[in-house]
Structures are given as C-alpha cells and as structure tokens.
Amino acid sequence: MHGPSPVGAITLVGWVDVQASASADREFRAARDREPTVRAGLFGQHSPDGNLNLNARLEWRAATRWDGWPEPDVPAALLLDLGLSRSFAGERFHIALTGRNVLGAPEQTHPLGATLDGRLFVRVEARF
C-alpha cells in the first residue's frame, strides 16, 4: 500500500472512502448496497534504522444489510492491524510479522460468512 518511510521518519496517512450509486440498474445497486457505504482509517509507518519497519493500520467499516437473507445484517467493524518487518544481510533476508484484527473485533463480510478472529501472518524471504 505504501513504500518504506525514510529512516527515522514517521509517515501517517488518513483516508475516507464513501460509496454510493447515483444511477445504475437494480442489480448493480443491490450489489453495491451490500458493501460498506463508508470506510475510514489511518495508516502509520516508522523505520528507525532503515532495516526495521513498524506499521499500524486502523480501519472502520460501516455496517451493511443484505435484504433477502435470513440474517441480513453485517455489523460495523473497527479493525487494527500491526506489522513488524526486518531486513538482514544487506536485504538478502527479510522477515515480516503481521497481526490482523489484533483487537479481535467481529469481522464479517457476508451475513452467512465466517466471523474472523485476530490472526498472525509470518513471511520469510531469501533473495539470492
């Protein structure tokens, strides 16, 4: 989403995404109405030494309603993701840890879909 911050700098980016369909056929509007009408968030990144990168992403999603489904409401969600990455040996090796939804908020995108808990991703890269 964003490139690395300059060494020692803190980068903050905020956003708001508002969606609406002004004119479209009924099927398109119905599909669009099932997506959150508002998403807003903040992304922050800091690289104290050029090899270590710390980042955080906070996002709020509006609730949605899926008319015609047995349980049509998908609740709003406040999601916090945290990341840590580090390069070694002249950037030949890279390890990244990312915590997704570390607040454990109920995260659901479909009324019959799973409610996702917090999760941890680990990525290891070797470049030769």
Give a quick summary of the entry:
This protein is mainly β. It contains one helix and eight strands, in the order βαβββββββ.
Describe what you observe in this structure.
- This protein has one helix and eight strands.
- It starts with 9 loop residues before the first strand and ends with a strand.
- The relative contact order is 0.16.
- With 128 residues, it is mainly beta.
- The protein has one helix at residues 26-33; strands at residues 10-18, 38-46, 52-61, 64-65, 73-74, 77-88, 93-100, 119-126.
Q: What distance lies between the first and last C-alpha atoms, to the nearest angstrom?
A: 25 Å
| Low-confidence residue ranges | none
SSE topology string = EHEEEEEEE
Structural class: mainly beta
What is the CA-atom radius of gyration, in angstroms? Answer: 19 Å
Report helical residue fraction. Answer: under 10%
Q: Beta-strand level of the residues, as a percent range?
A: over 45%
The strand line-up of the biggest sheet is 1-2-3-6-7-8
Q: What's the average pLDDT?
A: 88
Molecular shape:
elongated
What is the total tally of β strands? 8
Q: Please describe the biggest sheet, giving its number of strands, its sense, and whether it closes into a barrel.
A: 6 strands, antiparallel
| Number of H- or I-type helical stretches | 1
